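@channel sequence for tomorrow's demo:
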Amino acid sequence: MALNPYDVYLEMGLQWRSGIPEELQGIRPKELVTLMRLAAAEGGVSQGAAASALRQSESGMSRITAKLLERKWVTVARSTDNHKQKLITATTKARLAMDTLEGKLAAAMQAAAAQPTRTKADKNADAARRLYGTRTLF
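C-alpha cells (generated this afternoon):
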C-alpha cells in the first residue's frame, strides 16, 4: 500500500524536529537550509547578502544569526576588505548536523517513492471491504 502524502509530510517533519536543536526550530526550514548553504561556501557570506537571499530585514537576519551563534552553528567575523561588513561562516558542527538531516530527509523521500502506487481497482477493493466487511458479494 502506498504511503499517504500526509504521512510522508509528517515523517519529514519528525525528522526535521529530531535533527534541529529546539532553539533553532523557530527558524523556517527553507531559511535555515538556505543560510547554511550560503554560509558553508568558502569565505562565508556577508550578513547583508544573506538577508537579501532570505528576504529578511537586517534586524531579522541579526536575530537568526544570534540564535545560530548561540548554538555554535556559525561564526561571525568582520570582513578584511570592508570593515562594515560581517561575514557568516558555517561551523563543522552545523555542516555535520545538516548533512545528517539531509540524509534522513532523503531516506524518508526514498521510502515514499519506493512504495507502489495504488490503482483505482485497489482503492475500490478497499472501499468495498470497508463497506461490506471481508465477505464477498458473489
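heads up for whoever presents: The two ends are 25 Å apart (CA to CA).
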